[in-house]
Amino acid sequence: MTSDPFLFLPQALLAWFDEHARDLPWRAASPGRRDPYRVWVSEVLLQQTQVVRGKVYFERFLTAFPDVAALATAPIEAVLKAWEGCGYYARARHLHRAAQVVVRDGFPQNYEEWLALPGIGPYTAAAITSIAYGEERAVNDGNVRRVLSRLHAEKEPGELWVQARADELLFRADPGRWNEALMDLGATVCTPKSPRCGVCPLSSFCQARKSGRPGDFPTPKRRAPVQAWPAVALLIGDAHAAYLEIRQGGLLGGLSGLPTEPVEDGDEQGALERLLGRLGARHARLLGTVSHTMTHRQVTLRVYEAQADLPRQAIQAHALSRLDHKALSLTRQAQTALFEM
DNA sequence: AAAGCGGGGCC
DNA sequence: GGCCCAGCTTT
């Protein structure tokens, strides 16, 4: 029988976590098991979102919807308003739908039942059930992937490989604490660039460190190139109240925004005329141009002011993307410029 | 298996 | 400007 090179690794990590665990609002010490609702909301907020940002939205969201019943009975517009600016808005829509299922059927009691809810995938189901229920589930997220890639000096860890390594390393006496410890280590010590191996409790176990270039693990994933996305938008109203449409489809779906039309083949006039025709608007005047970068799109929005007999919505009461807020701020700048003249 | 989906922080 | 973030859903 060969000796296990990771034999003393669990103590090392858990001792480090005793000292260095981050103080996060969803970890608030309710003795014993933690409130599944709070863990759930935090885990969804933290999907592809850094902890420092997630914190702010967690407080905001829990104030608006203190429990699952409050969330389930709220209108979707209110849920999106609480999520406004956080991105990946499908998370909020799924969370809202799932809350209604939970109010009807009760809280899921295990991994499989959580996985069946909208917006809950393998990571989130493992996180919730290990942290709130003590179920023996190893999480597999970006932190775990990076830490394990380095521990084993595996430059291109696949999903199945990471899950298998995480499963065999899982500290089964306290799975939730173990998962949190591994993720905290990845977020604060075993960072993507310039890992702080000098203070890492796992450095003596780490093959990547032994290689001398721990930062080279894992190999960066290839990303789709950013696409240019030219469009025109119509402002009917002002910065405080304007005609808004609820965006359909994937991009910013469910959010309110200025009526927008994509520019095809560089034909801005054509796009503008389609927009004016659709809304029965007239007297378009260029307000300005807004640039907005998303992960996979570079939006250039030409914003026109126009008149039309259409209802104006209070901006403050609706959830808008950063893009639409930028477009609206064009009028403020125009007003400020006039005022200063 | 790959693409689509926000926004911000950091190098 | 590139890369990453407590990923999930759809195709």
UniProtKB/TrEMBL annotation:
Gene Ontology molecular functions: 4 iron, 4 sulfur cluster binding; 8-oxo-7,8-dihydroguanine DNA N-glycosylase activity; adenine/guanine mispair binding; metal ion binding; oxidized purine DNA binding; purine-specific mismatch base pair DNA N-glycosylase activity
Cited InterPro entries: A/G_AdeGlyc_MutY, DNA_glycosylase, Endonuclease3_FeS-loop_motif, Endouclease-III_FeS-bd_BS, HhH-GPD_domain, HhH_base_excis_C, HhH_motif, MIG/MutY
Domain (HhH-GPD) ranges: 45-188
Catalyses which reaction(s): Hydrolyzes free adenine bases from 7,8-dihydro-8-oxoguanine:adenine mismatched double-stranded DNA, leaving an apurinic site
EC code(s) of this entry: 3.2.2.31
Pfam families per the UniProt record, alphabetical: EndIII_4Fe-2S, HHH, HhH-GPD
Protein's UniProt name: Adenine DNA glycosylase
Organism of provenance: Deinococcus peraridilitoris (strain DSM 19664 / LMG 22246 / CIP 109416 / KR-200)
